[in-house]
Amino acid sequence: MVRDPDRRGLLRWRAPAALAAVLLLVAGCAADPPPFPARLAALPQARPEPLPPGGRHLVMPGETVSALSRRYALPPDGIIRMNALEEPYFLYVGQVLQLQDTPPPAPRPAPRLHEVRPGESMMRIARLYGLGLGDLIALNKGSDPNDIRPGQVLRLPAAIGGPAPPAVAARPSPPLEIRVVEAPTPAERRQQLADARSAATRPPPARSGEGFLWPVKGRILSAFGPRPDGRRNDGVNIEAVRGAVVRAAENGIVVYAGEAVPAFGRMLLIRHADGYLTAYAHNDALLVVQGDAVARGQPVARAGTSGRVNRPQLHFELRKGGAVLDPKRLMPPLATQLASGAG
Predict the structure, then answer these.
(1) Do 255 and 325 lie in a common domain?
(2) What is the pLDDT of residues 25-81, one digit of tens each?
(3) CA–CA separation, 318 and 169 (whole Å)
(4) How many other CB atoms are found less than 10 A from the CB of residue 343?
(5) 326 and 290 assigned to the same domain
(6) What is the pTM assigned to this prediction?
(7) Which one-letter DSSP state was computed for residue 201?
(8) Within a domain: residue 302?
(9) Strands 232-233 and 236-239, sheet pairing
(10) What are the counts of helices (DSSP H) followed by strands (DSSP E) for the chain?
(11) 56 and 79 in contact (C-beta within 8 Å)?
(12) Burial of 219 (0-12, 13-18, 19+ CB in 10 A)
């Protein structure tokens, strides 16, 4: 929990660093006993950053409304208004803020269609609307230009001259899976804040005493530490079968469950006793929600390819406070040979 306006944001929104930022976010509330504010020294920002994808920001430790205002060059009152924040404008780790207004999408122009009449040819219809024959053919690739028949429906450009075509009912097309993320209402934002506050400040259950377990079994696709491309992996990426059960590494509380960090897809953060935190990314499905208490070995997700990976895997991180830990040093042996072609 952080009070505005005395600190700046910590990390830049970059895909390799985004998960680290999210993890540090929760680490601020990881010590026992909660609640207490997330306190993390801030780094100065040289210039404003572009908004995160989708205009949504996952609150990190040390962040305040004024810090985010400087980071993204946004007016503080705009952030307050868009997220229905109330004085004294506390922000909580795991809280998702909307940083841009989301006006309703402009209506798409109605498709222009022409129903072929007896005696008409593709050339005649093109001339009727002032189109080139090639353009009309390109819009109707499934139609034989030399064999059009009365009653056949042809597509026309959305904006054309010539006579208005008669109204024709468009043929149904196969449904597309389109995910639309709408800005939450003020009531929904208040509920999100309450959920984030509760998850970030509840004391986690005691650890099992049996140690951390690997959430999935498989080959290491990308090991902990520096990578050949110059980036750094703050965890390990483990090869998995799509749909494989992902299990909680220890007893804990789910402090984040969502997709606010696009590079990591559907992700979970679980807070454990003694200041530990684990992260599970690239899941196809999440089986728990923010605020759930989970037990060591409990199924919490299904492995997959969400985020920026091209093969089923799990990105797993283990932290204590703000420190990044190599899971292999604290967990039972796991096959560590590197697989080629990591996603």
Answers:
(1) yes
(2) 454 444 444 433 343 334 444 578 888 767 878 775 567 999 999 989 999 999 998
(3) 57
(4) 16
(5) yes
(6) 0.56
(7) H
(8) yes
(9) unpaired
(10) 7, 16
(11) no
(12) middle
CATH of the domain at 123: 3.10.350.10
- Close Cβ partners of 74 (under 8 Å, ≥ 6 residues apart): 68, 99
- DSSP annotation of 339: P
Verify that 79 and 219 share a domain, yes or no: yes
Give the domain extent around 192.
Answer: 15-101+186-330
Distance CA 175, CA 160 (A): 27
Q: Tell whether 84 is covered by a domain.
A: yes
- With respect to residue 163, please indicate whether it lies within any of the assigned structural domains: no
Answer yes or no: are the C-beta atoms of 102 and 92 closer than 8 Å.
no
Q: Which residues contact 53 (CB under 8 A, 6 or more apart)?
A: 262
Could you give the CA distance from residue 223 to residue 215 in angstroms, rounded to a whole number?
16
Q: How many residues does the chain have?
A: 343
Q: With cut-offs at 50, 70 and 90, classify the pLDDT of residue 217.
A: very high
Q: Give the closest residue to 269 by CA, choosing from 239, 244, 234, 242.
A: 234
CB 247 within 8 A of CB 298: yes
If we measure between CA atoms, which residue out of 183, 138, 129 comes closest to residue 160? 129
Domain shared by 65 and 122, yes or no: no
Q: Which residues pair with 238 in a beta bridge?
A: 220, 314
Q: Please check whether residues 145 and 225 belong to one and the same domain.
A: no
Q: What are phi and psi of 2, to 5 degrees?
A: -135, 135
The one-letter amino acid code at 269 reads L
How many domains would you assign to the chain?
2
Which residues make beta-bridge pairs with 202? none
Beta carbons within 8 Å of 267's beta carbon, 6+ residues apart: 19, 22, 256, 257, 258, 259, 261, 279, 280, 281, 282, 283, 307
Residue type, 7: R
